[in-house]
Amino acid sequence: MAVRQRSTRISHPPAAESRPRARRETWYSRHSRTAAQALVVLQAWVVLLAVAISAPATEGVNRRSHPTERFRHVAAADLGHLNCEAALDEACAGLAPAQQAETPAGRFWLVTVLLYALYTVIFFVCVYIIRHYFFTLNRLFRTPRQPYVDIDTAEWPPVTVLIPAHNEELVIGEILEALVDSDYPRAKLTIVPINDRSADETCKRIQAFEAEYPDVVKPYHREDGKSGKAAALQDAMASVEADIALVFDADYVPGRGLVKQLVAPFFDPEVGAVMGRVVPHNTETNLLTRLLDLERAGGYQVDQQARMNMKLVPQYGGTVGGVRKRALMSVGGWREDALAEDTDATYRLLLAGWKTVYQNRSECYEQVPDTWEPRLNQIRRWAIGHNQAAARYARRLLTSTRTNALEKLDGLLLLGVYAMSPLLLIGWMLGIVLWYLGEAKPGLIVILLVTSYCTLGNFATFFEVAAAAHLDGSRERIRLVPFISLGFLVNLFAVSRATLGQILPRRRPEELLWHKTERNHNHNGVYNNNNNTHVQRKG
Amino acid sequence: MKTQTHDRRYQYPAARDPALPAELEELRYRGYAGGLIVQHRAMAVEPHPAPKILTSVFLVLGLLAGWFAALDWVVVAWAWILDFWRAVFGLNGYVVIIDYPLGFSAPYLAVGAGLPGIWTWIAGAAITLALFAGSFLIPRRFLPVAYLVRVIAFFQAGAQVFFALWPTSFPYGASGYVHGMLIAGVALISLTPVLLGLIYYIFDFTLSRKLGLTLVVMLHLSVFIPLQYMAHALILYHSTLLFLPILFFVFGLPLDILVLIAFYAWGVSWRSQWSVEEKGPEPRVFQEAREPA
Q1: Which of B105, B148, B265 sits opposite A478 (nearest CB)?
Q2: ipTM of this predicted complex?
Q3: Does A24 touch chain B (CB under 8 A)?
Q4: Domain encompassing residue A50
């Protein structure tokens, strides 16, 4: 494994484009505005050209007459009585239902069932469209609710920072360096990198920090036990003495003040978990990283903050956040059989009456996948984990006495978010069958219109992402919004496949796979040329 | 000396002190290195929408009124375009305008497109297989493209199966299909001001930008849609109805909607009313950050 090390200290990245920052000049950044202007000019030329070339076709027509007199007009109501050209007969068949042959009873019922199934899918799609739309409106126009972000001076409680790390030699040094530089009182801070059976240089890197900062860095080495982040966290949690445990993924780089920001909400005794905002750092790598940046912006800047504003169910995301140990342990700790231990914890805390807080101001910089393979693994893992949580907690949430009606609704919609992909595919299948059956009524055309844009993503989603980038001040990036359709397409199939894999019987049903997100380089640009994939088997 | 662009809402948040002269007010937001202390994006909000709602409603209504007033001419222009290209490509047929109740009409391009013969069917099957197999040869970094190709292959495979089993039961003809899609196109253009009213007019862009974007989108679609479905008619005329499903499901409305989304994204990327060009020295810390270590 060839690793090039750089001794330079990482400089914490500024917050995207809300502040001026060093940027790599690309063809896109230099020419996007010119290209857009050229497009407008092209529009004008296309119009002029179309008019110009169409004009000769009007030869022989009295130009002074009303333009609609150029072509023969046929009333739709008369089409059934026309006895003219074959093509018009065809139109009669399509446009005048009375002329069609009587529908057999079996076909009638088939069509009726399929239509109502399609209407059901469309109903759910519309529910999510409305949800996206109102979240975005709320985020755009309501002052963000961030009640704890101003707490700067306090008697700070002891805190333990957990960093699960399985073969993270490229990035573990950066997060440890950032954390020991934190402005949290040194006597109250304990950093616990969890060396989870790493086979690379992760252990050595951690030991180097332990030797340099013995009072703060106290690693936890795992040699055996179940694999996966949840199992590692659960094992390490037993050694945590502080009541507040923050959890960071190893590829994240927190700023100096982040620990204080994430601890501050725990002064509120009702708070069980805290989540900060995830900001991709490697956005300029390629199209995928740019799309993931937009997706994250929509998810955090709009979705999570709107939930926080509306006192709904902000999600503890497990990568930039923390939990109150007492609260988590009272609901069973980290579930080792959960692929999305963060979502699982969110719902168990919610059902027990604990609040989860989202802090939009508390940003942490992550390295998003820059190739599709780890992205696919990541989204599949999220889908499976999320669906697990849906199966476990949906009914309990409905009957819970500790949550109000809005929390129930939002919680259920959040749980069902990954079920929408297979549902959309089913909707498409129904639409296709109905289309081949010839049920192209005007109503169905509208349905297909709705379905087609829902499959491309939907306008509410594009609105949400565009609004998030607009609030971030990332104007140029907004132009990439149409490309999100490509990401949706991949997500649609990846999530559907993962969901179907959960529903359909498997050869080894007890086996769950934890796909660790592979990293090719760290924040300082040190590359790894090892392309091995790491799959840990759970159970 | 490089210049930096800043957004006014970050520069002068709502807590501006009116008692201070402008020069001193500005100093409140100057950092130690000469840069601006900007409001964090986590706190950013749009100006309240209330004053915009009324103008947006009037804009939507005005645009809709204008569109419906011009619809007769648009329909005739579409008929002209269809008839012109029909003649250019030598398609046997004609163009009429079908009038519907409530004064709505749409052009009808009468062209024939037959059922696929055995060789056309085999050619279609070969293309489908080639697309599907070829999608696995696409490099992994272009995964979405590979997925898109597989989706196209899937739709075409469905058509291949249908025409192999029930060729005479196919419920659509080329003329009726093109006519239906033109109607859907009219519906889409009619919905454009409403849609943009919901997702674009609420942003703090000037009225001229809102109007401009909407007109550009409607104008583009007004030209694009008849040409698009003329191309569909041409393909169907020469290649039979076997390819109608793929045209409908992939290159029909989804394409039109993608065009709309692209324009929308472009419009949101424009500078809003709050944005002003602020020219000043680039803060030294950012210059240093850019220099190589």
Answers
A1: B265
A2: 0.84
A3: no
A4: 40-103
